[in-house]
Amino acid sequence: MKKRLTTKQKLRFLHVFVKEWAKLWIDIDKANISGMRVDRKVTNGEVRRIYAIVFQVKTKVDRINLKKSRLIPEYFDIEFPDGVVRRIKTDIEQTGAFTLHSSYCGGSVKSDHSHNRGSFGLFVKDFFNEIYAISNYHVLAQNELDHHQYDYNRNGNTTQDVQISNDLWTLTGILDIGTFSSEVDVGFVLMDKNALYENVLPNYSRISGDLTRDYVLSRLQGQAVTIYSMFYPNGKTITVKAAAVQVNSTKHNLVHTDLIQIERVTAHGDSGGLVINSQNAVVGIVLGADESYSYIVPFYKISNFKRCYPL
């Protein structure tokens, strides 16, 4: 007989299961389902102890007004790794449509590949000692994205085509590589490695490492994180709602997977902004928001795309 799973093991399996099925489930009502996550079930405004698969929708519609093909199931019978089939109920929350947070207004990152401005994330170094500034691909390469080019490689280009600035300095770099996919939305700007770069926060403290995937998925929920972005140059602290959320980007016909979810505090122009925890470890960068929540790309996904570490 297989050993029964602990609550933590059940949740870990359920997060992975939802990620694998998210795109198919979103197809139930692609125009209205904006995302999904695993969270405690809410009944008549009361948060219960049991966990549910929460479907986030743009607009909540009474079941009697929906065609049978568009109905979200009230539960799923799922077989867990211990061989036990468990009935997992669903929940529905109206969160509005998801949008990316690039902007036409002023910001701290401007690229010749984009009509948008956004926020600078942080400086990183790869294992060849090249130094990069990072932000979102949709901030740095919006022109390419508009033409359905979801990957970028500079292929020998040496033009200084990205400007990074704050109140004290302006730097230029070269958009080197980037991608926009279900896993990650990131662009790497190659900097002059002969110059000195530091990730210094407004309080003059420094970044201290980054969070692993296991830490994000098992321990980040309920912790405080701080955003540094165009609209929050001095930081905005908020609590993590969930750490493995799937979000439907209808404009680009893909599902962003395993995002970190916080209360909606970001606005257009905050895309690419740095997010750290209370120990100054890098959590990730801002991606976008719906009407209820803001979403963060975990740094471990950025590092999975291109091996790097914070300076």
Description:
Helix content is 14%, strand content 41%. The longest helix is centred in the N-terminal third of the chain and has 20 residues. A hairpin with a 7-residue loop joins strand 14 and strand 15. The termini are far apart. It is built from five helices and 20 strands. With 311 residues, the protein is mostly beta strands. About 2% of the residues have low confidence. Strands 6, 7, 8, 9, 10, 11, 12, 13 and 20 form a nine-stranded antiparallel beta sheet that branches. Strands 14-15-16-19-18-17 form a six-stranded antiparallel β-barrel. It is globular, with a radius of gyration of 20 Å.
The SSE order reads: HEEEEEEEEEHHEEEEHEEEEEEHE
- Mean of all residue-level pLDDT scores: 89
Helix content: 10-25%
Helix count, DSSP H or I runs of 4 or more residues: 5
Unreliable stretches covering 5 or more consecutive residues: 103-107
Hey, roughly how much beta strand do the residues contain? 35-45%
Question: Based on DSSP secondary structure assignment, what is the total number of beta strands?
Answer: 20
Tell me, what's the shape?
globular
Largest sheet data: 9 strands, antiparallel
Which class best fits the helix and strand makeup?
Answer: mainly beta
Radius of gyration: 20 Å
Describe the secondary structure blueprint for this structure.
Elements: H1 7-26, E1 33-43, E2 46-57, E3 75-79, E4 85-94, E5 99-100, E6 109-111, E7 117-118, E8 122-126, E9 131-135, H2 137-140, H3 142-146, E10 151-153, E11 162-165, E12 170-180, E13 185-190, H4 213-219, E14 224-228, E15 236-249, E16 254-263, E17 274-277, E18 282-289, E19 293-298, H5 299-305, E20 308-310
Parallel strand pairs: 2-4
Antiparallel strand pairs: 1-2, 1-15, 3-4, 5-18, 6-7, 6-11, 8-9, 8-20, 9-13, 10-12, 11-12, 12-13, 14-15, 14-17, 15-16, 16-19, 17-18, 18-19
